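Q: What does the assembled structure look like for these inputs?
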Amino acid sequence: MKSTPQDKTNLDPNLVEELTVSLSKEVSKRRNFAIISHPDAGKTTLTEKLLLYGGAIQQAGAVKARGEQRKVTSDWMELEKQRGISITSTVLQFAYKDKTINLLDTPGHQDFSEDTYRTLAAADNAVMLEDAAKGLEPQTRKLFEVCRMRQIPIFTFINKMDRPGQEPLELLDEIESELGLLTFAVNWPIGSGELFRGVVERATKEVVLFSRAERGKQSNEIRLKINDPELKNLVEEELLTKALEEIEILDEAGCDLNQELILSGELTPVFFGSAMTNFGVRPFLDNFLDLSQGPVARNSFDGPIVPTRESFSGFVFKLQANMDPKHRDRVAFVRVCSGRFEKDMTVQHARTGKQIRLSRPQKIFGQDRAVVDDAYPGDVIGLNNPGMFSIGDTLFIGPRVEFEGIPCFSPEIFSWLRNPNPSAFKNFRKGVNELREEGAVQILYDKDQSKRDPILAAVGQLQLEVVQHRLASEYGVETRLEPMGYQVARWVKGGWPALDEVGRIFNCKTVQDAWLRPVLLFKNEWNLNQLKEDHPEMELNSVAPVV
Ligand code: G4P
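A:
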């Protein structure tokens, strides 16, 4: 009989030892990351190039031919086709050198950044991708804040160096001053745009000359020592001098490449390159593997759970319905946190206490799927979800584990959701509840219980449209949205008693979330600041407390 971690107690101690060693080995092979960027910075392009270097073990229907990507990113939903946007997120796994790398991909459209927030909760590292001409952009700043909360290492790739960009020193300065993150440039660009000639690698003191790799091909790197006389025939002297002078400034005034600061999320290694021409991607990947962290211990309510804990544990970070409309299925994405996951395993569901046999775990999402036989910490598996899993749920074997939940982030648009047809009320309520559980949208309610229509609270307008569309197509309910004109939500620390103590407050609306906790809605930041000034004793959170 195949042994599983449940029955280790009955196993030969030598076999237990062997299983433990093999688990440690698998854990040390794993690397996992998500890319944070603003749309158009080149996330899809960089992902494509990264996959070129790794034998793509699993590819989750995400990266498609460029032209096609724009039109139809995934066809799980009609709305994606109509709007030509990517709503779904996926997981890609590839092997490179001796590592297995999991890239937790996120939706391309910023209105779905809630999804990205949750995916970041499952990532051990983040790659911050910037367009050299644009520098830091709003979506990147927002997602960076989530990384900061989790203190995960951030690796910066400054993209599109083959196009005219901002001064590299200014780009670093922006990261330092605006994000409060120390920087260490691992390589330094020689020129930019038409005059981009390559980079100087600071560790090796070598110049890597810029060349455009053919589409779909790995790049051929030409490297020369910085004092190689041949260099002056290949690179204009003034460009090289400028780059070397700037490196001197960095050597004197900048900080060192300190691994500890990288791992605590205080220092970001910075790489300059051009994803489209496949320049600088491989050195980036090599350095990333050296400097990034493997699967980390996860906080549970009973302390941290290390990945080498013998038995399996994991948590649901994302739910997705109808990825395959033909089957009307729902998939729960589970991040493996400890132990070895095996097909057909019976696990415990921490929230409900139920035992669940996981007979068809999947490793490929989107159009192509395969049943997975095993998975290790840092990997992501997809489980069929007939409504039993919610975001943040823990699954485990052995001694009880319950991971700390995933916070909800502050919505920015609010709208009443009206159901004009009373006979459809049951379906309406079912649909709203299921979409909330799935995390498609946050739901708030008026404090006055008699007003039963829900308030949809979302990060982007499209999120609301998706909910309306799905209520119509999946639950047969036509609804109407009535915008509310609020822009900011804050949870009150201490709940209703804390709010009662403050007494009457002005210029905000008090509503409650699905857990009946008070939420204050403000028309703008100015009104929020006013409240903070009037009541400095109140503690307000932009992130919902974890339940
Ligand atoms: P995203 O997923 O972050 O939204 O960005 P995506 O990779 O789709 O890239 C956005 C645009 O930027 C694409 O151009 C892409 O080719 C271009 N791009 C990405 N990396 C680089 C780079 O290193 N240099 C240059 N010059 N361009 C880059 P597009 O015209 O919108 O699409 P396409 O016609 O190339 O398909």
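The first helix runs from residue 13 to 29.
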